[in-house]
Amino acid sequence: MEIEKALYLIPVTLGETSIEQVLPSYNHDVIVGIKHFIVENIRSARRFLKKVEKSIDIDELTFYELNRHTDRKFIGQYLEALKKGQPVGIISEAGCPAIADPGADVVALAQQSGFKVVPLVGPSSIIMSVMGSGFNGQSFAFNGYLPVEVPQRIKALKKLENKVWNDDQTQLFIETPYRNAKMFETIVNNLKPQTKLCVAAGITCPEEYIKTKTVAQWKKEKLPDLGKIPAIFLIGK
């Protein structure tokens, strides 16, 4: 299969899930036809590529690292291969590139430069958590991380709760895994009893956990020990 010149956004499994479970075979065909990759972490990207196709010669590939430490004035160089007519792939650490991910900066540059951008099909914890929550899927917002300081966090939560009730808009946010229990505690102790909370963790993985209950109902239970499992918190009505 010949791959046309384009910037391909390549989704990655959300955990130790089999490739066949979440990624179509077309993604495999695209990946083996690319020699230049923009990645968040080179080591994990190499591991993912080997998981996709064991016969890939990693030493033949060129990797450009893009994360919070990357000087944005250099990312234009990452598209040099595109200018020479070669396809380029973006690989995130997990899930879909450019969604809550630094890859968005490269996509914006590719769009400005007139290059074709091709998003491939794959798992998105954000979309899948909305699907499994039972909340409004026609209007929702992903808010990333909330403030760490408790007073500011409570203020942010109440602001999101107001959007739920006033605008009927589902609100999503995340937390560093080791703080999941603390986030849960802050939510149930500060939001209205009738507000609903969905905890979506380990999506597509063996430890997948997606439960929706009112704050009042959650108060009667102990949140399962999520450990270091990435989770998304959603509030709705």
Overview of the structural elements:
Helix content is 33%, strand content 20%. It has 237 residues and is α/β, with parallel strands linked by helices. The model has no long low-confidence stretch (mean pLDDT 92).
Radius of gyration: 20 Å
Would you tell me the structural class of the helices and strands?
Answer: alpha/beta
Percentage beta strand: 15-25%
Side by side, the strands of the main sheet go 3-2-4-1-5
Q: What is the number of E strands?
A: 10
List low-confidence stretches: none
**Percent in helix:** 25-40%
> Which descriptor suits the 3D outline?
elongated
Helix count from the secondary structure assignment: 9
Helix and strand arrangement:
Elements: E1 7-10, H1 19-22, H2 25-31, E2 36-39, H3 42-52, E3 62-65, H4 80-83, E4 88-91, H5 103-112, E5 117-119, H6 125-133, E6 140-145, H7 150-167, E7 170-174, H8 180-190, E8 196-201, E9 209-214, H9 215-219, E10 231-236
Parallel strand pairs: 1-4, 1-5, 2-3, 2-4, 6-7
Antiparallel strand pairs: 7-10, 8-9, 8-10
Salient structural properties:
237 residues; single chain; 33% helix; five-stranded mixed sheet; alpha/beta; 20% strand; five-stranded parallel sheet
In short:
This protein is α/β, with parallel strands linked by helices and 237 residues long. Helices cover 33% and strands 20% of the residues. The chain has nine helices and ten strands.
